[in-house]
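Annex B. Sample input.
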Amino acid sequence: MTESAERIATNLRKGVLEYCVLGLLAESERYGLELANDLQTRGLIASEGSLYPLLARMRETGLVDTRTEAVGGGRPRRYYTITALGRDQLSTFVEVWRTLGAEVDTIVRGHHER
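Annex B, continued. Sample output.
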């Protein structure tokens, strides 16, 4: 990927990451490393370290709740779940994304076909 393409992709990822997390949590409860691995596999984050500050902000703003569970005598895991407010935000994002995405596609498609 060129430097310009990487810059564009990075900016887009930053703008949608919170909603991608909400989308994954709408499917099922997940612990932090599980979320990070899924997002890394999809190319949405570079490392798990970039996810935890976002999760903390999402928790502070009421988009996600957490619970802690000890697993197999190891270090306790913090599990994240989407809240009702998080579901509302995700629904709103989906509406906006569909409209905005369609408009952007219409505009850039004409440019790309030239």
